[in-house]
Amino acid sequence: MPCAVVPVIELKGTAKTVKIGATKTPVLVGERINPTNRKDLIAKLKAGEFGVLEMEAKRQIEAGADILDINVGVPGIDEKHAMLEAIRIVQEAVDVPLWIDTSDPAVLEVALKTVKGRVGINSTTGEEKRMDVVIPLAAQYDAALVGLCIDDAGIPQTSEKRVEIARKIIDRAERAGLDRKNLIIDCVALACGTNDQGAKATLDTIRIVTEELGVNTTLGLSNVSFGLPDRPKLNAAFMLMCAGQGMTSFIGNPLDPNMQLATKSSKLFWGEDKFAMGYLTFFRKMQQAQAAAAEKK
Question: Is residue 95 classed as helix, strand or coil in its secondary structure?
Fold first, then answer.
């Protein structure tokens, strides 16, 4: 039973505590506070219009996100200022834990000094320069650390190489005083449309990291469907397959009805939804939304 062999990681927001590894259904980390491929959000951040992040945060939590990823990396802006504003606005709007997502160590450190609660860092890789900087910060500020299975040679195609990188990250973290119980390994999703073995490598990596290394796992889920039709349904199906291999958290879009159905169904089937109340509430909301949409036609 995968989640019985990994430690429980407690992250804290301004009021809410979220436990990664405590349930069969993976914890959902909302991905939408991230300007990647979002021209509208890039424009807002460049203009200093950070208030838009309040609605993004609230909508994701209302839709079922457990944690929020915060990424404001836009070329040409003062990322330190943007990150501090994002943290302030989001933590005034919602009470859940955050994952700090930046490639700039200086931005990461100022965020860790400022944020309330116990956060996650998204992420280090297995690259030497990145581990040298990020792992000590995670240890210093008692943050959970996501370790991405990429190293100086790039993204590995095989599960064997990814597990090798995971072992390297874990070893480096433990030598720096960061216990593996505070690590979350990102097993890396690659586009199935260009690599027919990519998803299998991810699934195998999740299983091995869970069963042999005893570490929590995560995934940037939507990469797997890049370039293919009907991406939301593929993403939701892949999430359930990854959960079956032991994945304990994932970064995804909580506003997607397909993902909502997948997470609600998982909780229902694993006995994590008492009297099916979560699923029934979700079903009624979907019925109401469909009825409202039909009336507008």
Answer: coil
85's tokens = 């504003």
Tokens standing for residue 15: 């009021």
What does the angle CA 178 – CA 72 – CA 46 come to, to the nearest 5 degrees? 160
Q: What is the pLDDT along the chain (297 residues), one digit of tens a residue?
A: 444 489 999 999 999 999 999 999 999 999 999 999 899 999 999 999 999 999 999 999 999 999 999 999 999 999 999 999 999 999 999 999 999 999 999 999 999 999 999 999 999 999 999 999 999 999 999 999 999 999 999 999 999 999 999 999 999 999 999 999 999 999 999 999 998 899 999 999 999 999 999 999 999 999 999 999 999 999 999 999 999 999 999 999 999 999 999 999 999 999 999 999 999 999 999 999 899 888 887
Give CA–CA dist 67/57, Å, rounded.
10
Taken as a whole, the chain contains a residue count of 297
Q: Is the peptide bond before 266 cis (omega within 30 degrees of 0)?
A: no
Specify the residue for token string 């995804």: 252
The token pair at 236 is 């939701």
pTM over 0.90: yes
- HSE-CB for 60 with a 13 A CA cutoff: 30
- Burial pattern 165-180, b for ≥16 Cβ within 10 A else e, equals bbbbbbebbeeeebeb
